[in-house]
Design a protein that fits this description.
This protein is α+β, with helices and mostly antiparallel strands. It has helices at residues 4-12, 61-70, 96-110, 113-120, 122-126, and strands spanning 17-19, 26-29, 32-42, 45-57, 75-76, 86-90. It contains 5 helices and 6 strands; from the N terminus they run H-E-E-E-E-H-E-E-H-H-H. This is MmcQ/YjbR family DNA-binding protein.
Length: 127
């Protein structure tokens, strides 16, 4: 079971991540968002920032559909996210190890190639 604190810890452990001030959490690399709290839209009411749901960048529609169909207990989508390479993740349903993989994958897809190469080079990380 993961939560917003786990998202924050995992995201900030990645190179060159910036946390944007928000009512929930919002993390970017090279000015590109890769994981943030879900701004739930409710008819006739203000948006509700859900810190129990993370929006994750997944790269493309094929990956999005694979996650949605393969693990419907973890992933879902909502109106306004159609056609976008984003999935919604139920944090209480995911383990921290899997969350780490998902956050890191989202970071990899948004980070410039040089930063990804740094993350993949063990010598860079140890020295």
């Amino acid at each position: 079971m993961a939560d917003a604190d786990d998202v924050r810890r995992l995201a900030l452990a990645l190179p060159h991540v910036v946390e944007v001030d928000s009512a929930g959490f919002d993390f970017r690399v090279a000015d590109k968002g890769f994981v943030w709290s879900y701004p739930e839209r409710r008819p006739g009411k203000p948006r509700l920032i859900r810190t129990d749901v993370a929006v994750l960048f997944v790269g493309d529609e094929a990956e999005k559909q694979a996650l949605l169909l393969g693990e419907p207990d973890l992933f879902f989508t909502a109106p306004g996210y159609e056609g976008l390479p984003l999935v919604l993740l139920r944090l209480p349903e995911v383990g921290v190890e899997r969350l780490s993989e998902l956050v890191t994958d989202a970071w990899r897809m948004r980070a410039p190639a040089a930063l990804v190469a740094d993350l993949d080079d063990p010598a860079t990380l140890s020295g």
